[in-house]
Amino acid sequence: ERQLPLCLLVNPDSLISIDRMCARFPDTPVVIDHLARIGADGVMRDADVRLLCALAKHPRVHVKVSGFCALGRKRPPYHDLAPMIRQVFEAYGPRRLMWGSDSPFQMQGAHRYRDSVALISEDLPFLSPGDREWLLCKTADSLLFAV
Length: 147
Description:
Layout: E1 6-8, H1 15-24, E2 30-32, H2 46-54, E3 61-65, H3 82-92, E4 97-99, H4 113-123, H5 129-144
Parallel strand pairs: 1-2, 2-3, 3-4
Helix pairs in contact: 2-3
């Protein structure tokens, strides 16, 4: 009723349930945090990525492209996540994806914000300058801070 986004910190096994709920409540804005934690166990499963991408059929679903320090190899510069990010980008487009800070975890051990931001701002060649602006600023601004 108030269009408040639901930000969901979930694992891939919850994506099927989220799909059902989005079909039942299509006007509810939903944000899937940290790429649905795909690869948190170190294994990037194509089936999990397909499930996340399939949620793009619901126009109010967004995805936080974040949590890099906890996904895949869990090492900067996080390039092992690029293929998954590209698939998610192709499914959702830049206006439904947003970077997230993952505070305070992105500042522990060898992890630094500069590496997390650099993955989006410099390292993914399939992103245009405009795409980068949406992922780093505009999507969150339009969804979370709209008045």
